[in-house]
Amino acid sequence: KLVSQLCSSCCRYIEQQFKKPVILAGPVVPESPKSRLEDNFARILDGFSRNALVFCSFGSECRLEKDQFQELLLGLELTGRPFLVATKPLIGAESPIESAFPEGFEDRTRGRGFVTGEWVQQQLILDHPSVGCFVTHCGSGSLSEAMVTDCQLVLLPNAGDQIINARLMGGDLKVGVEVEKREEDGKFTRGGVCEAVRLVMEEGSVVGEMVRENHRKWREFVLSVGVEDRYVKEFVHKLQALLDT
């Protein structure tokens, strides 16, 4: 489900390549969660000021290798900001997840660095006032949830459509900053993670100001009254027109 304002050039390309019409069903606006944030995470997030914390999550299926997990943690440590990382069990690493921490990491980040291997209430975390940045693997569901929040986006795709989503969000729409990766092996570094977070979070950053303004505009559009109904009606109308031809 897409909208023409978000991906008109991509849709035109697909139409040209396959000689078939592309009919868009509109944006998917996530419903507001009915539950409340679990106490253990609420205590963490409540301890920080507005927009101070970086939240990082890679969804329910994406798994990092141990060396990339360590680079991620070290990059977030370098930002000097508080952070919360939610990740699945690592590829080729022993459980618990703490066994894969870089040496000395826990001592250096005590009180500001939090890592969990548990399932988390992502929407509720993104909506919390203390969360100012979301480092995401660029899954469609995560991006839909992030686009309706005030969190700034750092894009760290892993595979498949995540890469396309990251190019769209960071390149075409400019609502986030993608973490740079090495040309020789496609891996990211701690410096790349730190720099991307810095760009979207620092006041006075030209890039940061641009992505914040673009994000604000798209958020207002997606949340505008009637946008879902309008697209669904147009979708049905175009389908009917195809049947009538």
Rg on CA atoms, Å = 19 Å
Average pLDDT level = 90
Q: How does CATH name the architecture of the largest domain?
A: 3-Layer(aba) Sandwich
Spatial shape:
globular
What is the β-strand count? 6
Helix content: 40-55%
Walk me through what this model shows.
It catalyses: an anthocyanidin + UDP-alpha-D-glucose + H(+) = an anthocyanidin 3-O-beta-D-glucoside + UDP. GO terms for molecular function: anthocyanidin 3-O-glucosyltransferase activity. This is anthocyanidin 3-O-glucosyltransferase. The protein folds into 2 domains: 1-30, no CATH class; 37-219, Glycogen Phosphorylase B (Rossmann fold), CATH 3.40.50.2000. It is built from 10 helices and 6 strands; from the N terminus they run H-H-E-H-E-H-E-H-E-H-E-H-E-H-H-H. The protein has helices at 4-18, 39-46, 66-78, 105-108, 122-126, 140-147, 161-172, 190-201, 206-222, 227-244; strands spanning 53-57, 83-86, 113-116, 131-136, 152-155, 176-178. 30% of the residues are buried.
Secondary-structure blueprint:
Elements: H1 4-18, H2 39-46, E1 53-57, H3 66-78, E2 83-86, H4 105-108, E3 113-116, H5 122-126, E4 131-136, H6 140-147, E5 152-155, H7 161-172, E6 176-178, H8 190-201, H9 206-222, H10 227-244
Parallel strand pairs: 1-2, 1-4, 2-3, 4-5, 5-6
Brief overview:
By secondary structure, the protein is α/β, with parallel strands linked by helices. Helix content is 46%, strand content 11%.
Keywords:
245 residues, alpha/beta, Rossmann fold, 2 domains, 6-stranded parallel beta sheet, 10 helices, globular, glycosyltransferase, EC 2.4.1.115
